[in-house]
Amino acid sequence: MNRLGLIGGTGLDHWGHAVHSHALQSKYGQPSATVAEFHVGNLCLYFLPRHGGQHQIPPHAVNYRANIDVLRQLGVTGIVAVNAVGGIGSAHVPGSIVIPDQLIDYTWGREHSFSLVDGDELLHVEFAEPFDSRIRKDLLRSANAAGISVIEGGCIAVAQGPRLETAAEILRFKRDGCDMVGMTSMPEAALAREAGLAYASLCVNANRAAGLGNEPVSMEAIEETLSIAMVKVRGLLASFFEEFEDVI
Ligand code: HPA
Fold this sequence. Notes:
This protein is an alpha/beta fold. Helix content is 26%, strand content 24%. The model has no long low-confidence stretch (mean pLDDT 96).
């Protein structure tokens, strides 16, 4: 069977009825949750909610290393991550879905490499293209097949959180060339690269970023937008899973 990891973000803390649940240990500590296994045709899908099953772990406290490590232990060759973001570019309206191709890391103080632990090899991974081009293309094809419109490409600013940004920070991200802002793509994407796993992301614009909308950003509005948009994300992923083959 082909093996794929799915990391769910805000608004996607559960997938469905699992056939197995894996309570795995990692030398990097506790992963966010047990990993739920699903079978879709010839695909073995492993779902891990990044913020925990009860959505109790904030972005800066996620154990990204343990999460990537347990998916690696399960033998996945690729990972699709779902990330809620705030829209900066004019096309990035609430509810729109993006397949990003770039990121800028503004996070600090996170355990951001497997090379920090005794006995781990020091890796300087190549990271010019942080997202896997084959998975990105397949996601785009699946979106088209399912009739779901997506924005192809775009740069995410990865902020530290958990607070939302100031208006000046968002203007800086915009000047830096960012189209969206989120809190969870890093160090997750880099750790997947270090682990040798192909990684791509589906970003969901939950709100206009700070200072760009008509009203202050509210968590209630974010949750409402995400609950509607995740129906489309699930449809896109279901179409993607039907076609997925291992990334060698
Ligand atoms: N900023 C950072 N992360 C986010 C936002 C935002 O405005 N919306 C959803 N995740």
